[in-house]
Amino acid sequence: MESELSDNSDLEIQKALEKTLLYSKLFNSGVKINELHSFLLERAVTKEQLENAIKSLLAKNLISIIDGTVILNRNLDNFYTRKNKTLNIRLVNKLLKILQQIPFISTIAFSGGTANYGIENHEDIDLFIITKPYTVYIVYFIIHIMALMLKSREIVCTNYLIDEKEIQIKHQHDLYTANQIITLVPFKNKSFLNHFLNRNEWVKSHYPNYKTPKSMKYKKSELFIIFKPFNLFFKFLYRSRYKKYLTRSNNSEIVLSEHIIKLHTHDYRLKILNEFQKQWDKYISEKNDVPVLS
């Protein structure tokens, strides 16, 4: 890493900082200053180098620090607008309490907008769930029934579940997925979530300063294999239900395998990545006063 650090010029580090903050700006947000080193894109730097880059961009009036959050001083097109929707917090707490008690669930983490803005400031609850082996469809079915009974299908967003046998993410090692992973906020079983993070160190290809938390070593339990037939039964039901999505999906946004449920029926990942590249090209061209080729 020392040679990598020595290759970093001040301008390259500043550019990496601008790029990092522009990605957050897509979501009308910034990065907390105490997390910025971990979240810096593409460049392995020392904290001192990052502090110098922050000072330089502050002096150029390209960034601001507001309430401990570093923000890029640039207005972007309205790419992402949070809905003005108030959640029923009492119902949310009831749902989370029920989920916490389901014995087939190993880990629950807040993801996406919920992780970034908090429950009170987001229109639904984005959850990432890890289940015991051979129970991912059983858990999804239980959540499905619970949401129907409590009339909360629009509140609980559980469209990414994996079981303990597939904790290494194999679909899309891109910036969007890496950011989703490192911003997860644990709700149930932080220890196993840390184990998951340790098994997905590929995120460092995008965030080289990110330090995976220490975790215990876990052995895969085969006790839950008795639930495999039920899991396969529900898998058949859900694959039938989402057949039209599976047929037209060619980019792994829809995955219904034995150990993974990924139901991103709206392709926000590609939309965000494309918009990020477009906004970055525009930012650099305007900063350097170079016209953008259409």
Would you give an account of this structure?
Helix 2 crosses helix 4 and helix 7 (136-149) crosses helix 10. The chain has 2 domains: 2-79 and 272-287, Arc Repressor Mutant, subunit A, CATH 1.10.10; 89-263, no CATH class. By secondary structure, it is of the alpha+beta class. It is elongated and about 60 Å long. It has a 6-stranded mixed β-sheet with strand order 7-4-5-6-9-8. It has helices at residues 2-6, 10-25, 36-39, 47-59, 89-101, 112-117, 136-149, 175-182, 190-198, 228-241, 243-248, 268-287, and strands spanning 31-32, 63-66, 69-72, 105-110, 125-131, 156-163, 185-188, 254-256, 260-263. It is 44% helix and 14% strand.
Short recap of the structure:
The chain is α+β, with helices and mostly antiparallel strands and 294 residues long.
Count of discrete structural domains: 2
Mean pLDDT: 88
Helix-strand category: alpha+beta
Distance between the termini: 39 Å
Amount of beta strand? 5-15%
H-E string: HHEHHEEHEHEHEHEHHHEEH
Any low-confidence stretches, pLDDT <50, length ≥5? 1-6, 290-294
Count every beta strand, where a strand is a DSSP E run of 2 or more residues: 9
Helical percentage: 40-55%
Rg over CA atoms, rounded to whole Å, is 21 Å
Put simply, the count of helices is: 12
Using the alpha-carbon principal axes, give the shape: elongated
Largest sheet: 6 strands, mixed
Helix-strand layout with pairing:
Blueprint: H1 2-6, H2 10-25, E1 31-32, H3 36-39, H4 47-59, E2 63-66, E3 69-72, H5 89-101, E4 105-110, H6 112-117, E5 125-131, H7 136-149, E6 156-163, H8 175-182, E7 185-188, H9 190-198, H10 228-241, H11 243-248, E8 254-256, E9 260-263, H12 268-287
Parallel strand pairs: 5-6
Antiparallel strand pairs: 1-3, 2-3, 4-5, 4-7, 6-9, 8-9
Helix pairs in contact: 2-4, 7-10
